[in-house]
Every structure is written in C-alpha cells, then in structure tokens.
Amino acid sequence: MSTAHLTINLHSLTHNWRALDAKTDVETGAVVKADAYGLGAEPVAWALAEEGVRKFFVAAAEEGAIVREAVGPGPMVAIFSGHMEGDADLLRKHDLTPLINSPEQFKRHREALPDHRFGIQLDSGMNRLGLEPADWAELRHDALALDPLVVMSHLACGDEAEHPMNQQQLQTFKQMTNGVLVPRSLAATGGTLLGPEFHFDFCRPGIGLYGGMPFAGAKPVVTVDLPVIQVRDVAMGETVGYGNSWTARRPSKIATVAAGYADGLHRAIGGGIDTFAGDQPCPVVGRISMDLITVDVTDLPYKPDRLRILNGHQTVDDLAEAAGTIGYEILTSLGSRYSRGYVE
Ligand SMILES: *Cc1c(COP(=O)(O)O)cnc(C)c1O
C-alpha cells in the first residue's frame, strides 16, 4: 500500500438508508450527487437500488447518466439543476428527470423534449434553485397538466431543528402545492429528522446515508488508512514540520504518513486529531503538508505499517469540526489519489 486507502462499507450505507426510512411512513429516496458525496456513485447507487431505492437525485445530467448505468431502467433519476442548455440528448438517452427550475427551463424542455417526463423544483425561501412563487403561479396550470413526476423544494436550515425558517418554508411549500396531486418532497436528511409534517410523499436524504450529521444515529461508512513511509526518532526540543509548529517535549517517535491536504485532509485540521493503530490513538503533530502528515507514535509499542484517520472512533464530523467545516466538505474532498475498496 503506497497511497492512502478509502474503504466504503456498503452494509453501513444500506443500514443508514433503512434507519432513515424507518423514521417515516413515506418513501425514501437517495441523493447521490457529487459522485455520491465522494464515495463512488456507481457502487453506492447500485447498493441502494438493490435495497429498494426507487428515486435517485444528482446535481447534473452527466452525473445522472452514471447513476442510470448503475441502477438500470426503472428507478427515477432526477437532476437538481434541471434542464440546462445542451442537456436534451443526455436526458433522453438515459431517461433522466430534470427538475424544472425556471420559466426558461420549462420552455426549453417543452421545445426540446415535449414527451419527456419532468419534475418541478420550487423555491420556498432558500433563494438558490427553483421556481419563485410568482413564476409558479403562472406556470402551474400548464405544468400540472403535463403530469410531472414530483414537486419538491429544499430547506435552508433543516439541520437546525429549532430554526424558525423551517416552519416558514413548510408553510410556503404547503401554500405553493395546495391541491397538487403529484408526489411532493421537502425533506433532505435534516427534514427527515424534523418530523412527519416535513415528510410529504417522500424524503430524499444524502449525508445521513454516508454517516454524517445531522443524522446522529448513522453508522460510519468510510474508513481511511494512511500508509506509514518512515518512522524517526526526534530528540527533546527538536521541531517537526513546516513552521516548526510542534516541539518534542520528550524523546519521541514520529511516523510520516502518505496523505495530506491534497487528499482532502485539510491543512486547517489543527490539533486534537488522532490517527489510530487498531484502537490506540496516536496524535497528529505539526502542520499537515500537501502529501504528508506527521504522527506521534512514541506510545505505540511497535512500528505501524499504516494508521487510520477515519473510523468509528473519529468520524467525518470530528475531522470537519477540527477544520472549521462540515462533514459534507470532508467527504467530497477525499481526493482521486486514494485507492478504494468496497465492503459488500
Ligand atoms: C444535497 C441536497 C439534498 C440532500 O441533502 P442532505 O443534507 O445531504 O441530506 C436534498 N435535496 C437537495 C435539493 C439537495 O441539494
């Protein structure tokens, strides 16, 4: 092993999907955008389809083509960015469902693919994607006459249970979809946990499937192993790494492992992070470099071949907190240099 290794546990993934599904009385889809949050759209979508997922969501038509390939004909594969210029061939060829975001997209879709089913994305207050209330009022009659597959919107603060924005968007979404008979959806992972009012006809979690907050009950899905390149003795008073940011307070053994901020282990991950030899924590010391991390293995009775930085003890959210970001960004940053393995 000469590069860092990512192990994705598809059992834990499908366990998390079932656990989220069990929290509602409605259907549960899956968001697999950005290469399934960096974990591999093909194996992830395939495993979820085997588990019974019938509604998949991605950001762009190109991603949808990959997911269609993995899940085969049948399940809906919907595109959050809708029908963009030049998408018609991909949408038709791979039977993708664009979520129409604007009057322009509606017009484009009607002209390019008049017989192709679509969905509707509404803006209930986030002001990012979707039809504004006024545009929807104008389009609603024509759009509903074409029997869209879904009508959905997205919460801006769904991971903060007490935030008043949730109730505000819920009321707006209800008003905008009053009398609509098409399947409706408002909830991602956060909304799924907010309670039945937010569930409508189906939920569409992403991060919770991959072991991230706000789904506190998630099983960890990813482990990351870093190969040790060398171990050196460092005398008391010597420093380690760029900027001399760590000084040995005792004679120390320092392991240098092959991964760094170019692999998504952000330089901003400061102190307080460990790597693990089995269950034994070994603290990261000194600055994280582009391709290298230094670890204090003085208390380890043997020379390790590899150290694990993500596991059940230290999660994506622990790394995120140390870096001042969110688990989503840690997952999607895990770079292309990793070798990958899947536990089925
Ligand atoms: C990313 C996304 C989701 C999934 O969100 P999670 O917080 O990862 O569960 C759902 N809906 C939309 C519109 C999204 O952009």
UniProtKB/TrEMBL annotation:
Residues involved in substrate binding: 128, 290
Domain of life assignment: Bacteria
Pathway terms, separated by semicolons: Amino-acid biosynthesis; D-alanine biosynthesis; D-alanine from L-alanine: step 1/1
EC number annotated for this UniProt entry: 5.1.1.1
Record-annotated Alanine racemase C-terminal domain positions: 221-343
Active site: 33 (proton acceptor), 242 (proton acceptor)
Family per similarity comment: Belongs to the alanine racemase family.
NCBIfam families: alr
Protein name in the entry: Alanine racemase
